[in-house]
Every structure is written in C-alpha cells, then in structure tokens.
Amino acid sequence: MIGQIAVGVAASFLVWAYMSLKPPPSRVCGTPGGPPVTSPRIKLSDGRYLAYKEAGVSKEKAKHKVILIHGFDTSKDLNFPVPQDIIEELGIYFLSFDRAGYGDSDPYPSRSVKSEAYDIQELADKLEIGSKFYVIGFSMGGYPAWSCLRYIPHRLLGAALVVPFVHYWWPCLPAELAKQAFRKLLPQDQWTFRVAHYAPWLFNWWMTQKWFHSLSLLEGNMSILCSQDLEMVKKLSSKPNPGQEKIRQQGLYESLYRDIMAGYAQWEFDPADIPDLFPNKEGSVHIWQGCEDRIIPFEINRFIAKKLPWIQYHEVPNAGHMMMFDPKVCESIVRELLPAE
Ligand SMILES: *[C@@H]1O[C@H](CO)[C@@H](O)[C@H](O)[C@H]1NC(C)=O
After folding, report:
1. Distance (Å, rounded) from C-alpha 146 to C-alpha 316?
2. Which of 191, 223, 224, 230 to mutate to test the pocket of ligand 1 (most atoms within 8 A of CB)?
3. 72 CA → ligand 1 middle, Å
4. This prediction's pTM
5. Is a pLDDT exceeding 90 seen at residue 198?
6. Which residue has the least CA distance to atom 6 on ligand 1?
7. Ligand 1: which of 183, 221, 225, 294 to mutate, most ligand atoms within 8 Å of CB?
8. pLDDT at 5 over 90
9. Fewer CB within 10 Å, N side or C side of the chain?
C-alpha cells in the first residue's frame, strides 16, 4: 500500500516536472490556430519564413542600406527615430526584420548566435540590397551584430552596436571585472541569466514558476531603469507604437525565452578575437554605451572596446539604456556610421 502511494507520488511529481520543464507548443504564424501572417516575408533556404519591413528612402534611390537588428521584446516595428531630414540628406534605406520566433517570423528551435548572422545575410540577398550593407544592433540585437562581425564580415560596410548585449561568460573578460559588473544587476536577473547559461533545459520552468522572482522587467519591476530611462518610458508610452501586439504572438517561449537562451549560451567565438574588419579604414565599427545604463553595465563594453582598438567607442554621458529613442543620439549614430558625400 505504502509502496503504491510512493510510486503514485513519484509519478505525479515526474509528470509535473515534465510539464513545467517542457516548453508550451508554439502558435506558428499562418498555421491553423496560429495568428495570421500580416507582414511581407522571405523564405529562407531551410524553409523558415522571416518577416521584414522597409523604411526610409527607397532601395533604388538609397545611398546607404542599413539593416536594423531589434532587441529583446521588440520587433521589426522598432522605434529608431532618426529625424526625417537626416534620412533624406544621407539617403538611408532601412531594412528591419523580426528575429526568429518574434512577430511574424517562424520560430527556430536551433536558433543560436551564429544562425542570426546567416539569417541577416539571407535576408539581404533575398531583398537584393547588394553585396555589402551596414548593420545596427540594438541592446539584445547586439549579439546578432557581433555574429555579423564574426561570420559575415565580408558583407559589411560598417556596424554600430547600440547599448549592446554583453555576455558575462566571455572568456576574454577578467573574472573580477565580469563578477563586479554582474553583481550590479538585480539578483533575480542574475539568476535568470545563470539559468539560461548553465541550465537552459530549466529555463522554461524558471520563467514560468511563481516561487522566485525571475526577469525583473518582465515582471513589471522597473527598478533596473535609471531616472533617464524612466523618463523616456513615460514619454514613449504617451505615443502610439503600432505593431507591439504582434511581438510575442507566437508564444513567450519562442520569442523572448529562446532569445535569452541563445544569447547566453556558450559562444563559439570570443569577441576579443575578431580581427579588424577595416584595416584600410574603408568602414567603421562603433559601440554606443550610456553612462547611466543599468541594464548593460558600461564596464564590460568599455573593456571590449579597449581590447579592440579598431572599434570606435562612444560613451554618452547622462544617458541610459533608452538613449536609442532619443532623436539626437540616433542622428549621431547614423552620422558616425555612414560616410557623408
Ligand atoms: C523590484 O526588485 C527589487 C530587487 O529585486 C526589489 O527590491 C523591489 O522591491 C522590487 N520592486 C517591486 C515593485 O516589486
């Protein structure tokens, strides 16, 4: 009798553990039960679809073609408010896309740092924007930008990494520096990144359980934002921001959770080993960091920029993580990246 009860309890525990570890089924765009496809898409060579959006001057008239890589919990409808007259003056064509699993782009269970660069390359080729182009990666979109620097450097005219993602387990980081920067994060965010890095199989459970706090921003806890960021959030929330409802429509797991797991997985390369893309100065690579940013501690990007002297490092005083929504900063980013004629 006691044996049967024990077996029953053990079996229920296993079922419960299995259910909470297993990610929920995704709701793929354009499949029965899934959301409808409402954006133009290209078909990648592995059969996945990637949704995109074009903006700025037309592809035919453009002097500069720039691929924008969105961050965490945003999409191709990201807000990068470069003033219209600057777009016209410099002749910029912007191409943005939903990274795998976000918006209208198919989920990709094998998604990795590396796959992001190849998605970008195929997108550029399918849309025939030319053999070379610029990329700008924002925040979490910093890891796909690093991936481009590493895997498709021959396709780049230049790159900007804006308040870019940092990986606390990059081998080039001195242990003390990594620890010090990591400890500046909220403990619950530290745990979230640890689970993603060391135990990705546990990540779905971690993000959905109610016993411990997980990622602060997803819980609506704003204490990681500096005062400049809070002000910007307030300013932005008063304006309409179309497309937001589509970001997570295929499920949190395929969009947000997998993004964190891909970023914090072990990388196949160390950014500090990337050779100078433009030894003859025919292009440039930039990192933009806000001094007050508490989501991305400046210590790490400052260190990487010192290690890679061919990167132009811009530390913006009195600016937080949300400085990418400041039109003046946006103007500086494109002016530094794109040569004026
Ligand atoms: C937000 O998180 C911090 C650190 O984990 C905590 O001290 C604070 O009480 C939280 N705030 C809210 C509103 O939950």
Report:
1. 21
2. 223
3. 21
4. 0.94
5. yes
6. 223
7. 221
8. no
9. N
